[in-house]
Amino acid sequence: MRSPRSKERARTLFLVLNGKKIGDEALREAIKRVRQEGHRIEIRVTYEAEDSDRYVLEALRQKGVDTIIAAGGDGMVNQIAAALLAHDAPVTTELGIIPMGTANDFATGLGIPTDPWEALQLALCTPAQPIDVGIVNEQVFLNVATGGFGTEMTTKTDEGMKNSLGGLAYAITGITNIGSISSITAVMKARVVSTAQKEERAYSILDKKQGAEDLEEGQKLLEDGSEVEVDGDLLVLAVGNARQAGGGRQLCPQALVDDGHLDVSYVMNIPMEEIPDVLARMGQTLDSGEMLDCFGSMRVKSLTVDCPDGLQVNRDGEPMRAKKLDFSLQPHRLKVHMANKELLVQPSQTLRHGKEVMDRKIKSAATVDRRQQQQTSISRLRTISTVLQQRSWIGFHCVGARSNCRIGS
C-alpha cells in the first residue's frame, strides 16, 4: 500500500452506505483508489433507517475517525445528520457526502461532485465548513423543508420511476395529478430579519447589498426581530437552510447555510383558475433562481405554520404531516465538506486552497487515466494486428496447401 504524499496526512473515513447502492462499481473503485493513497475507509451498509443511527454512534465512539461520509441521497444525509444531533456529536464532527440519490439537491447545492472518487477527494482535501441545522417539530433538515402541492407530488412519486427517470419522475407525477391541485388554509407567524414589507401582509427578502434607500416605492424595511403574520390559502411553502429542492428548483435562492437564519418562500391566495398557469411559470423560472411576483419571501429567526387540515411536509426527502409546524435553527451545529462558497457568509480562508489542491489531484488523475487508456488502446491494436497477421500467414499456407492438393490429384 502506498503512503499518502508527504503533505497529505493519512485520514480515517467512516462511510455509511445506502444498501440500495451496494453494487455501485464507481463507488467500489473510488474506495479502492483512496485506500491505495494510504487512507483508511471503514464501510457500513444500511438496510433500515435505524441502521444509520447505530453506525453513527459506532463512529462517534471509535477513536481516530476524521470524517463520517454519507453515501446516498438527501434522505440518507438527513438520517446521518439527525443521528449526529441525537447523540450530541461535538460541533467539530465532520460530515462528508457522496451523492447517490435521485435528486441530490443538498449535495448539488453545496457543489459536491457526483463522481464518488472526486467526492471523497473533497472530503480529504478541503476543510469542513460550519453550517446551520434546521429543525421542524424537533426533526432535522439540512436543506429545504417544503409543503403544499409540490410536496404532495413528491410523496406520490413511484420509487421505481425515481430510480429509472431521476428528477424527471417528479415532474411527470405533477403533470398527471394537475387536476388534484388545491390550496391549504394556513396561518404563518414569524420573527423576521433582512425583510421588507411590499404591501399589506406581503413581504420580500432584501438582497445582501440592499438597504432602506434601495426599496421600491411603497415598500417598508422591517426592523430585525419584527413579528409578522401571513394567512390565507397556501399553495407552496419552502423553508430553506439551503437553496434548492425538487430536483434543482431554486426555491430559496438567497439562502445561506451559515447565516443563522431560515429563508421562507411561499405562494398564497392565488385564484383557483390561475393556479395551473402559476405552476407552469414556476417550473420555467425556478430553475434559474428567479422568483415570480406571486412569491412572497421572508428571512426569519423562527416560524410557526398553523394548518387546521394538516400540512404535508418534505424535509430533505423525509415526509411528515402535522397541523402545527414550528421551525427553528441551530447555528453552526455541524461541519460539512463543501465546495460552493456562495452558500457561505464567511467561507474559511483555507477552503479556496483546499479546493485548488482537490482540483489539481482530479486533473492529475484524469491525465493519468487518459494515458492509461491510450496505452491500453495501443496494446489492443498491437494484439489485433498480430492476430490478423498470423491469420493472414496461416490462410496463405492453407490456400497453398489446398492448391497443392488439387494440383496433385
TrEMBL record:
Its cofactor is Mg(2+). GO terms for biological process: phospholipid biosynthetic process; sphingolipid metabolic process. The keyword rRNA-binding does not apply. One of its GO terms (cellular component) is plasma membrane. It holds the Pfam family YegS_C. Keywords: ATP-binding, Kinase, Lipid biosynthesis, Lipid metabolism, Magnesium, Metal-binding, Nucleotide-binding, Phospholipid biosynthesis, Phospholipid metabolism, Transferase. PROSITE patterns: DAGK. It comes from the Eukaryota. Transmembrane segments: none annotated. Residues 8-139 form the DAGKc domain. GO terms for molecular function: ATP binding; kinase activity; metal ion binding. The keyword Metal-binding applies. PANTHER family: LIPID KINASE YEGS (PTHR12358:SF106), SPHINGOSINE KINASE (PTHR12358). NCBIfam families: YegS/Rv2252/BmrU family lipid kinase (TIGR00147). This is DAGKc domain-containing protein. It comes from Apatococcus lobatus.
